[in-house]
Amino acid sequence: MSFVATKKLTVFDYINYSLLAVISIACVFPFIYVFSVSFTDPAVYVPLEFYLVPEKWSLAAYKYILSTNSFINALNSTVYVTGIGTALSIVLSFTFAYVLTKKHVPGRKLMLGGVVFTLVFNAGILPNYLLMKEMNLLNSHWSLILSGLTNAWSLLVIKGFLDSLPPELEEAARIDGCSDIGVFWRIVIPLSMPAIAAFFLFFAVSYWNTYFNALVYLSDAKKWTLQVLVKSLVIDSESNGVGAGGGSDDRVLPQETIRMASIVLAMVPILIVYPFLQKHFAKGVMLGSVKG
Fold first, then answer.
1. Number of neighbouring beta carbons within 10 Å of residue 288
2. CA-CA distance, 101 to 167, in Å (whole number)?
3. Do residues 220 and 48 lie in contact, with contact meaning Cβ atoms separated by under 8 Å?
4. What residue intervals traverse the membrane (predicted)?
5. For residue 72, what are the domain limits?
6. Residue 269's Cα: distance from chain center in Å?
7. Is there a contact between 15 and 234 (Cβ–Cβ < 8 Å)?
8. pLDDT 10s digits, 150-179
9. Does residue 176 sit in helix, strand or coil?
10. Is 101 part of any domain?
């Protein structure tokens, strides 16, 4: 029979755990409040009253939002930008990072220096806006996609991961007749799945939460993303909701229930995707951070 020694908790441990519990509860409460208000029946909702559990459950706010043209347009725009942007970001980031790992590539040091330079210095808002204007991408979803395709931090982390892969596998593949592209797609990509899963989540969250670029580059409200629409709902106190689309519900629903329901609908897709990538998340980020 084996006995497992347990550490005796000290006063500091109790204080530390208590503080962490209080902070955790304080962080969770706003989410509970948002969910609670969004599911509260408009007939019993009282403004400025704190809700942890709805007095009467209702899906009226969700039905109203999902029946409006403005929310459907914003959802379609966000899904479009996130889907295409994430796919292109993964392809560009991993191909570019793979090139940076090859010392025999002409101009490699210059490209790597350019990546590091952009990590420290940024052109700013005005040059980026003028660039999109010259490319005739203003008021286009492609302005959101191309402006966030990749970044220096992602490239350097992915490069560190690819540097940690055994070079013997690539040499064996070349001996078997694989070209550089064949080595990349048949050897490097399968070994990089944990990193791809991690950065898939990074890029997807970034595109899904696109707000500032959409506010700057998109002037047509029909092309707004979810975050811009949610911002207009939360801040604009003179609007009861979701714009010109109108809803199927003839009642005037309280603004707060509509706002909270829109926030929940904007969060749910990422909350659904995350558990499926969680097992790859930590592994993908840590691999390549230490090279033995």
1. 19
2. 11
3. no
4. 12-35, 79-100, 112-130, 183-208, 258-277
5. 59-292
6. 10
7. no
8. 999 999 989 988 888 888 888 888 888 888
9. coil
10. yes
User: Which residues pair with residue 57 across a beta bridge?
Assistant: 40
The pLDDT, as a whole number, for residue 84 is: 95
Q: What share of the chain is helix, strand, coil (3-state, %, to 5)?
A: 70, 0, 30
Q: Please give the biggest Cα pair distance in the chain.
A: 76
**Domain containing 185 — which CATH number?**
1.10.3720.10
Please say if the pLDDT value at position 19 is more than 90. yes
CA distance linking residue 263 with residue 229, whole number of Å: 10
d(C-alpha 282, C-alpha 215), whole Å: 33
Higher pLDDT, residue 253 or 2:
253
Which residue is associated with the tokens 């944990």?
A: 194
Q: Report the distance separating Cα 259 and Cα 201, nearest Å.
A: 26
Per-residue pLDDT for 127 more than 50? yes
The number of C-alpha atoms within 13 Å of 90 and in the hemisphere containing its C-beta is 19
Dihedral, 131, 133, 136, 141 alpha carbons, nearest 10: 90
Classify residue 34: in a domain, yes or no: no
- CA 207 distance to own-chain centroid: 6
Residue with tokens 């939002």: 65
Total number of domains in the chain: 1
Q: Are 258 and 61 in contact (CB under 8 A)?
A: yes
For residue 7 the two structure tokens come to 């550490």
Nearest to 257 by CA among 29, 36, 38, 21: 38
The answer to whether 73 touches 223, Cβ cutoff 8 Å, is yes
pLDDT range class, residue 282, cuts 50, 70, 90: low
Q: Which of 9, 38, 6, 1 lies closest to 265 in space, CA to CA?
A: 38
Token readout for 249 is: 């519900």
Q: Is 39 a domain residue?
A: no
The packing angle between helices 69-100 and 193-208, to 10°, is: 140
